[in-house]
Amino acid sequence: MPRTPAIRDNGRVNEADQDTTDTLEPSPSRGNRLYPRVTSFRSRRGALTEPQQETWDRRWAHLGRDVGDELLDIDGWFGRHAPTVLEIGSGTGTAAVAMAQAEPHVNLIAVEVYRPGLAQTLQRIERTLDTDAPVTNLRILRGDAVDVLEHMIAPESLTGVRVFFPDPWPKARHHKRRLLQARTFALIANRLKPGGVLHVATDHAEYAEAIEVTGNAEPLLTPLNWSSPISHERPVTKFEDKAHQVGSTIAELIWGKIGA
Ligand SMILES: C[S@@+](CC[C@H](N)C(=O)[O-])C[C@H]1O[C@@H](n2cnc3c(N)ncnc32)[C@H](O)[C@@H]1O
């Protein structure tokens, strides 16, 4: 099983450092850690609607998995060998489903902690199944994407990683909760194949600056200067829509993994 000890340890903080304003509820990705990591998400309880639950019951066993400690057999799960892209924090699946449809030759794995969002993603997939462009190349993982990268993805196995509108955690005292910090860039860079791409979009100007500086400092990444192996076309999600409404600029940051 792949391990990146320095990264793993960097991710840990003492309980005392936890933000006590958040309720920590049991999560499939928290496992038996002695010291829970400061996570980039706020635990939200969310009941599924009846139709969502029905879709979940029909589709989860085939299309979804809880995050765990085992390396993913990606080819086995998709039933084929193809370039693999991981989307972190896929929300309700707007981008994941549209991009899976646009790139049928890619295996797309969407990771999200919010169960109603995952249920909506399953519903979106289900709605395509009777159309001319059924989505058969999207799988979903429920849990913390950092755990996914650490435990479930082998080094140099991803063609792309997408992070669209990561929670900005704007208060300085919450910056430690931001997903895109040096250790996450190092982890993502390690899991990308040489030539693979990290695509980030954010509407938060200050976070965008921090992301750019941190990404540029990661030695295995460089601003993309070759033809991308994955599409950069994104549909507009509700987060982007809101950002446009208040006049925010969307920053698109794209790096490639060196060594191709
Ligand atoms: C601001 S929303 C953006 C959702 C989606 N990308 C979009 O553009 O509509 C950020 C999402 O990331 C998820 N998230 C945050 N940290 C995460 C993590 N470590 N692992 C998985 N999902 C995470 C949150 O639950 C939330 O749904």
TrEMBL record:
Q: Outline the segment boundaries, as ranges, of region: Disordered.
A: 1-35
InterPro entries documented for this protein: SAM-dependent_MTases_sf, tRNA_(Gua-N-7)_MeTrfase_Trmb, tRNA_methyltr_TrmB_bact
Q: Name one GO molecular function term.
A: tRNA (guanine(46)-N7)-methyltransferase activity
UniProt pathway: tRNA modification; N(7)-methylguanine-tRNA biosynthesis
Q: Which Gene3D superfamilies match?
A: Vaccinia Virus protein VP39
Q: What class of enzyme is it?
A: transferase
Q: What is the official name of this protein in its record?
A: tRNA (guanine-N(7)-)-methyltransferase
Lineage at the top is:
Bacteria, Bacillati, Actinomycetota, Actinomycetes, Mycobacteriales
- Name of the gene encoding the protein in the UniProt record: trmB
